[in-house]
């Protein structure tokens, strides 16, 4: 075997230090990078325009308006933090915030638990199961106007089915949406009925991601149905539960259509949630600066609640 076959001769190409690229080659590489960057920017431009036109610009404009006195007629006049100082002493704003918190306390746990139970019940391979799941999803795609008509047939004090059921058990009839004490719980029940199908689908996806070997091992160990739900299902969907809680909390803090269509904040402002109060300040009283300040306070509140939930999830969410 010759040195040529083994390629062990000194001074071969692999032993030499790489020569620096020629100026002509470096210029060609720069032109190719600029060309690729231009095409990348062109393909990303629809989303960049969406961010600037529909997100960044409105956010910056609302922050500016929150520091001004603006009524849609006169030009905005800068007043600093006066709108935020006014919020601190606005009893109607704090009342709307309390109604929103009460609505969230009733809505989020009820929807999360009911959606999980429905998903567990429908996570089976039976004939017609897809049709049954679709039935639960129909209220999700229905408008709040349609849902309001359905709710009126149930909770109307005169001919509603809810009072007919109470009458069967000898209980007094209720005014439901016309009662200051019952309007928020009734709204929460209707909201759960409308939204539980969506959360059920999310839980179904989480349940089907749990390895079946875990249920088989639990069954071999003699675990009953409740123990499998407690020690296999719930830890397995803890990440999904966290997502559902986050989405439900944000939904309740931004609730507007339901209250606007069903009660318009009544009776006597008992169901006036924060976003409805913001809408009235901005589009009925034309206090656009004040409404923008309310929007920013609500945004910061949602951000703080989300960060708190992210911090707490480390204690109970399992991602393995």
Automatic annotation (TrEMBL):
Organism domain of life: Bacteria
Biased composition (Basic and acidic residues) is annotated at: 1-17
Membrane topology field: Multi-pass membrane protein
- Single Gene Ontology BP annotation: transmembrane transport
Q: Which UniProt keywords apply?
A: Cell membrane, Membrane, Sugar transport, Transmembrane, Transmembrane helix, Transport
Residue ranges for the region (Disordered) are 1-31
Where does the sequence pass through the membrane?
39-67, 101-122, 134-151, 182-205, 236-256, 293-312
Specify the ABC transmembrane type-1 domain's residue ranges. Answer: 97-309
Principal subcellular localization: membrane
Q: Where in or outside the cell?
A: Cell membrane
| Record's GO cellular component terms | plasma membrane
Similarity comment: Belongs to the binding-protein-dependent transport system permease family.
Give the protein's recorded name: Multiple sugar transport system permease protein
List the top taxonomic levels of the source: Bacteria, Bacillati, Actinomycetota, Actinomycetes, Jiangellales
């Amino acid at each position: 075997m010759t040195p040529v076959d083994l390629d062990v001769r000194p001074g071969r190409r692999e032993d030499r230090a790489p020569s620096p690229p020629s100026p002509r080659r470096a210029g060609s590489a720069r032109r190719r990078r600029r060309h690729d960057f231009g095409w990348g920017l062109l393909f990303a431009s629809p989303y960049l325009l969406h961010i600037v036109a529909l997100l960044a610009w409105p956010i910056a404009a609302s922050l500016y308006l929150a520091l001004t006195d603006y009524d849609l007629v006169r030009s905005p006049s800068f007043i600093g933090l006066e709108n935020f100082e006014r919020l601190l002493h606005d009893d109607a704003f704090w009342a709307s915030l309390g109604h929103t918190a009460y609505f969230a306390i009733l809505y989020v746990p009820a929807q999360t638990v009911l959606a999980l139970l429905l998903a567990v019940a429908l996570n089976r391979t039976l004939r017609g199961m897809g049709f049954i799941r679709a039935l639960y999803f129909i209220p999700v795609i229905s408008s709040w106007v349609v849902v309001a008509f359905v709710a009126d047939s149930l909770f109307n004090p005169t001919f509603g089915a809810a009072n007919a059921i109470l009458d069967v058990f000898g209980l007094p009839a209720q005014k439901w949406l016309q009662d200051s004490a019952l309007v928020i719980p009734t709204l929460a029940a209707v909201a759960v009925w409308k939204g539980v199908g969506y959360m059920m689908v999310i839980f179904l996806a989480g349940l089907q991601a749990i390895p079946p070997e875990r249920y088989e091992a639990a069954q071999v160990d003699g675990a009953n149905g409740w123990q499998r739900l407690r020690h296999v299902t719930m830890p397995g969907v803890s990440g999904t539960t966290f997502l559902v809680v986050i989405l439900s909390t944000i939904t309740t803090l931004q609730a507007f259509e339901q209250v606007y269509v069903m009660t318009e904040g009544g009776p006597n402002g008992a169901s006036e949630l924060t976003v409805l109060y913001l809408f009235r300040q901005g589009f009925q009283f034309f206090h656009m600066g004040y409404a923008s300040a309310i929007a920013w306070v609500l945004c910061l509140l949602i951000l703080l609640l989300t960060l708190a939930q992210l911090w707490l999830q480390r204690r109970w969410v399992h991602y393995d």
